[in-house]
Amino acid sequence: MSLISPWRADFPALAILESQGQTYLDSAATSQKPQALIDALTGYYTCGTANVHRAQHLPAERATRAFEDARIKVARWLNASSPTEIVFTRGATEALNLLAYGLEHLIEAEDEIVISALEHHANLLPWQQLARRRGARLVVLPIDTHGMIDLEAAAGLIGPRTRLLAVSQLSNVLGTWQPLAELLPLAKQQGALTVVDGAQGVVHGRHDMQAMACDFYVLSSHKLYGPEGVGALYGRGESLLKLKHWQFGGEMVRVADLTHADFHAAPLGFEAGTPPIGSIIGLGAILDYLSKLDAAAVTGHEQALHMKLLAGLEVRDGVKLLCAPQTALASFTVEGVHHSDLAHLLAEQGIAVRSGTHCAQPLMKILGIDGAIRVSLGLYNDGVDLERFFGALDHSLDLLR
Ligand SMILES: Cc1ncc(COP(=O)(O)O)c(C=O)c1O
Hints:
By secondary structure, this protein is an alpha/beta fold. It is built from 13 helices and 15 strands. Strand 3 (112-116), helix 5 and strand 4 form a beta-alpha-beta unit. Helix 3 crosses helix 9. The longest helix is centred in the N-terminal third of the chain and has 20 residues, at 58-77.
């Protein structure tokens, strides 16, 4: 498999970054955007904007149609059974907070909310706060030495008091796919609701909501080469009915008087206020762009890059991977070198990687470290990016040791 990315030229920022001596290896934080998205956003903003679902005039009809088309595209991308199963949010974080408020009435004192030790803060703190509000218990599934949620331990910890299981699909720190096919049914057998944080997983491959035993799945557009400020909550039809409304205002209400109001069901009932219309249309455009790519070629390219990244890290003295990642990223420490010093030197040489706790402080504590360097890949990266990274890494380590 060639390490040249046939899609690199679709992303104009990469040539500009390159001309500035920058190598972008931080796509798990946020991705660069293709021209197809820039054109869609320019097209929308140039043709005249309008609010959605509110007016009969032509710009409003056009905006509403494009907005609802985007919902259909997200539903198709996830193989949801209906576009009404897609609620637009401002990102994965907001979708998880929506769930933590929307499901609050189902959680009672002494109930158990189960998460794992490797969760991003976005899939930890909303549940931690919910547990506090309701006097419930937050149960944390341990991870094994392969960076996977320990299924044996999970079978013992998920029980009759479990009301909800919320776990990541792909770890943003370890790069490991979590064993959802085995894990989610353990919660379902107890009658619990299941939430999957797909913020990283959605970027790599297509995932079929009808095949996954989840009630809810959340994603952010900006990691998937789309605009910031928009994400989606997938909810199985019957699971969405369990949600209580959480944000109140325009367009989510059916009828209101000064003392009472009656609200729409999902999705509109959970999209209070003017949504980020342009960004949602942009998300639809990104899914069009991605749908036209050869998915097997993208996966093959990402895997080949990933193997090169791992091979290069493994032969360098003192470099220690946090675990063996399976895709798209690698997090590591270097013996005797602080991650922030290394990240600083890499940045000085134009290498954009992330260092720190990656919004997963509990995981860092368990691993006994105060942070790590994370190199993360997008479909536009190529072998030259990795060679530049390794050159800068060697130079930095020479300076630091
Ligand atoms: C696994 C995971 N979950 C949730 C999030 C939060 O996504 P956002 O900040 O786009 O809401 C991230 C972002 O890094 C993530 O990696």
